[in-house]
Amino acid sequence: MIKRPNPFLWLPLAGLLKISAFLQGNRLIEKAKIKKPAIILSNHASFRDYVFVTAALYPHRINYMAAAKMFHEPDRRPFLRLARAIPTCSFQGDVHAVANALSILKRGGIVGIFPEGQIAYHGASLKPPFSIAKFLKKAGVNVYIVQNMNAYLMSPPWTNKTFKGPVFTSARQLFAPEELSKLDEGSIFDKVSQGLYFDAGAYNSERKYHYRINDIANLENLIYRCPQCGHVGLRADGHKLTCPACRAELDYDEHGLLGGKSIFAQYEAQRIAFEEQIAEDPDFTLSSPVTLVRYRGDGLAKTGEGTLTLDREAYIYRGTDKGAEVTYRYSTKNVQYLPTDIGFDVQIYDNYEVYQFYMDTKHLPTMFAIAGEYFYRL
């Protein structure tokens, strides 16, 4: 059973994270008095969210729930184990992870959760799975929302570069135990969804905070479609995207806007156009050669090569895996979200495993995510 973080390690190391967050431009604008045991829910828009949440709640010790896949990544595994994070199988019911979290709460601890289950790669919060309401109802403890605002603009997930500028964090109570006991799961879910939601583009379109412009390479694999002529395959050039077909240019500015619109607005226009194209073709399929990466020992490693095809019913992988010829089928009804490392891969979680499919055509992972999530909604 996982223990609470060691205070003799947590206090100095988390203290350094608090200093680091401040130096990165993070400011706590609303503070809540935490009553333990407690669950902390946070929106997830950048790889630095753990830093900002830890800083906001310092000196409280937090057992974060983290994707099991991260424990197989050598650069993250030591820190997760040091922090006594709780591994959880993403997008699946994980009874062991729930038991660990409840055990921490019974001992008066704090459990930190990013309910979206993945980073919102376009800057607007994703809808969490309904299971979060069931978990909160079962736990029956104090629940707080820690919201990070504009972390997406300072440290966007489509690049490893930093766009220096302010990040604001607020902490407030969402539920008291007695309130949870009275509410049904649907009402709990609605309040969680509303409390977590944040759209960095809309927020900064009004407030106009400045962020130092940097090279936007790889954004063309998230926003891949020209909004003027519909050409698929934009190119990044410094701080702008260009269309090789009509020569249109989309400048990325100091407010985090692309072509005068937020990344989310550009993404939504692209998504709607693609979904309309799919709707007109009852035989629509999307296919790509892929390299398959899975768990191997304590790490992640290439286990095969083949082709991943998506239609209205399923994702189908045909190829090799661990030296054998295989065919894997994953129903679109069971894949609500298709997490993607932008410009690299898509990930399918099945039977407590992760299947990562790497593609050479860099914008295809985004197209697979849009199409697959559309089929799920259907």
Description of the molecule:
With 378 residues, the chain is α/β, with parallel strands linked by helices. The chain has 3 domains: 7-207, no CATH class; 219-279, no CATH class; 286-377, Roll (PH-domain like), CATH 2.30.29. It has 11 helices and 19 strands. The protein has helices at residues 7-23, 49-57, 77-82, 95-106, 131-139, 151-154, 177-182, 185-196, 200-207, 263-279, 364-377; strands spanning 26-30, 38-42, 63-67, 86-88, 110-113, 142-149, 167-175, 235-237, 240-242, 249-251, 257-258, 261-262, 286-296, 299-310, 314-321, 324-331, 340-341, 345-350, 353-358. A 7-stranded mixed sheet has the order 1-7-6-2-5-3-4, sandwiched between helices. It has a 7-stranded antiparallel sheet with strand order 16-15-14-13-19-18-17, covered by helices on one side. Strands 8-9-10 form a 3-stranded antiparallel sheet, with no helix packed on it. The longest helix is centred in the N-terminal third of the chain and has 17 residues, at 7-23. The model has no long low-confidence stretch (mean pLDDT 95).
Summary, kept brief:
By secondary structure, the protein is α/β, with parallel strands linked by helices. It contains eleven helices and 19 strands.
Features:
378 residues; alpha/beta; PH-domain like; 3 domains; seven-stranded mixed beta sheet; seven-stranded antiparallel beta sheet; 11 helices; 19 strands; 30% helix; globular
Protein topology:
Elements: H1 7-23, E1 26-30, E2 38-42, H2 49-57, E3 63-67, H3 77-82, E4 86-88, H4 95-106, E5 110-113, H5 131-139, E6 142-149, H6 151-154, E7 167-175, H7 177-182, H8 185-196, H9 200-207, E8 235-237, E9 240-242, E10 249-251, E11 257-258, E12 261-262, H10 263-279, E13 286-296, E14 299-310, E15 314-321, E16 324-331, E17 340-341, E18 345-350, E19 353-358, H11 364-377
Parallel strand pairs: 1-7, 2-5, 2-6, 3-4, 3-5
Antiparallel strand pairs: 6-7, 8-9, 9-10, 11-12, 13-14, 13-19, 14-15, 15-16, 17-18, 18-19
Helix pairs in contact: 1-2, 5-8, 10-11
